[in-house]
Write a sequence for this structure.
């Protein structure tokens, strides 16, 4: 009786499954059809705006020793021990005069680009045209033009070139903020010189940190040498990125490609077209990521912001009152989630702009005002050796430190009120980046006026916990954390 009941139930369940089989299978089929895009219209729409870029460079060609340039003949001479004419040690005077080096144009590389405006402005990568003596642009209709390099910015890897033509099909620029991870995208370029090659994939990640000033778009679109400078296109036919880099162990495509967001590239191209160069802001700080240990040490509720490890003397940040050890939480009201956000925001700010900075210092939040300067090569300040050797102490040996008093002459020269000089830095102190000659200004958020202050603070410090150190190296005040060995 029990068996019969189970059999009947099984038969009913089977009938239900058969009855519902068609609707259950139809849903994935529809989803699958919707998930496979047709790129043909996009290629027809955007393809004419993509160009092939070939470059040449001046190379000094040195004539061969025998004057003929025949490598097989030279090998014949070498193999049978026959002296090579005009070679060192060989017979002289067989040919009148000595061959002179000559400059000639040689192919340098192949890249891609896309038309920004109908009157001939074209965007590509800076590394595509870097060092080129001549840039040749080929359109999809096979017309070829010599291009003029308007400007190139190596920091962002963006360049703009100009050809003398009108009525060109310009691309449509998309909104990167609308871009979603998992979205279908397409690339058109000239990998290995194969013009107008189309590849497709999805957006793998956004805001990928691989550069100081650029949050890259990561995709799995096949990108290879020659794709550089070509457009990354969304399903609306809009350019949302400039293909620039790949991650590869072999030099070929491995499924990870990076594109410069078009909004970042457009800002750079606007400046290049206006002045031929890019002006970026700077405030004169050395920064680092706020780790969990640092957040706990300074009293932050969570790891966020940019840790100020150093402040350049006389720089905008120094004048604004930013100190080493501060954590910058906001710049111009925009939150700093990770340290790499700060140089991008500052770099995008016009020099001369007065901007607000929110910092976290010793448990308090402070709002400061900084006047952004223009980025320039950093100056390295030289520091004279001390004229006297003060008495050393071993109070900090538990942290790998041996320090001594700072002479009055050095205090006057470096404009210091106090501090102690590091004689040796080993183990935990060395791992924290400290070295001999550095001057410790504060320990555990307490200022050091003289040697006895250092000894008192260090002797009471918990050797199992991290120890914050503010120190001076050259003209820079810097911040680090000595972490105990666990």
């Amino acid at each position: 009786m029990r068996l019969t009941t189970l059999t009947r139930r099984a038969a009913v369940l089977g009938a239900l499954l058969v009855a519902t089989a068609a609707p259950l299978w139809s849903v994935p089929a529809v989803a699958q059809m919707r998930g496979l895009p047709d790129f043909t219209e996009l290629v027809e729409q955007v393809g004419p705006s993509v160009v092939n870029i070939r470059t040449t460079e001046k190379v000094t060609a040195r004539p061969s020793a025998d004057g003929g340039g025949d490598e097989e003949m030279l090998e014949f001479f070498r193999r049978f021990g026959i002296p090579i004419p005009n070679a060192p040690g060989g017979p002289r005077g067989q040919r009148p005069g000595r061959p002179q080096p000559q400059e000639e144009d040689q192919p340098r590389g192949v890249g891609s680009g896309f038309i920004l405006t109908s009157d001939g402005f074209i965007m590509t990568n800076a590394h595509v045209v870097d060092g080129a003596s001549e840039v040749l642009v080929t359109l999809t209709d096979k017309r070829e033009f010599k291009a003029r390099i308007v400007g190139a910015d190596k920091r962002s890897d963006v360049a703009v070139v100009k050809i003398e033509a009108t009525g060109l099909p310009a691309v449509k620029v998309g909104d990167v903020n609308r871009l979603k991870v998992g979205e279908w995208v397409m690339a058109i370029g000239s990998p290995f010189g194969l013009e107008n090659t189309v590849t497709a994939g999805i957006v793998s990640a956004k805001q990928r940190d691989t550069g100081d000033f650029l949050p890259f778009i990561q995709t799995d679109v096949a990108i290879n040498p020659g794709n550089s400078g070509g457009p990354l296109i969304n399903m609306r036919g809009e350019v949302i990125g400039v293909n620039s880099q790949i991650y590869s162990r072999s030099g070929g495509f491995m499924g990870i490609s990076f594109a410069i967001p078009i909004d970042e590239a457009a800002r750079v191209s606007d400046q290049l077209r206006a002045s031929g160069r890019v002006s970026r802001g700077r405030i004169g700080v050395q920064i680092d990521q706020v780790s969990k240990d640092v957040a706990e040490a300074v009293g932050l509720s969570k790891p966020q912001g940019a840790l100020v490890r150093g402040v350049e003397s006389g720089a905008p940040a120094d004048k604004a009152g930013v100190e080493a050890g501060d954590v910058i939480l906001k710049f111009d009201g925009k939150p700093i989630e990770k340290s790499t956000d700060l140089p991008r925001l500052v770099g995008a700010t016009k020099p001369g702009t007065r901007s607000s900075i929110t910092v976290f210092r010793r448990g308090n939040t402070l709002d400061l005002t900084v006047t952004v300067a223009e980025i320039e090569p950093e100056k390295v300040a030289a520091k004279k050796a001390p004229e006297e050797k003060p008495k050393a102490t071993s109070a900090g040996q538990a942290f790998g430190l041996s320090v001594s008093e700072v002479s009055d002459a050095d205090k006057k020269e470096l404009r210091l009120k106090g501090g102690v000089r590091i004689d040796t830095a080993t183990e935990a102190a060395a791992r924290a980046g400290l070295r001999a000659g550095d001057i410790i200004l504060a320990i555990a958020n307490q200022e050091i006026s003289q040697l006895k202050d250092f000894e008192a603070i260090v002797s009471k410090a918990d050797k199992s916990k991290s120890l914050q150190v503010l120190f001076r190296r050259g003209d820079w005040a810097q911040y680090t954390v000595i972490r105990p060995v666990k």
Q: What stands out?
A: Residues 392-482 form a domain with the Pdz3 Domain fold (CATH 2.30.42.10). The longest strand covers residues 102-115.
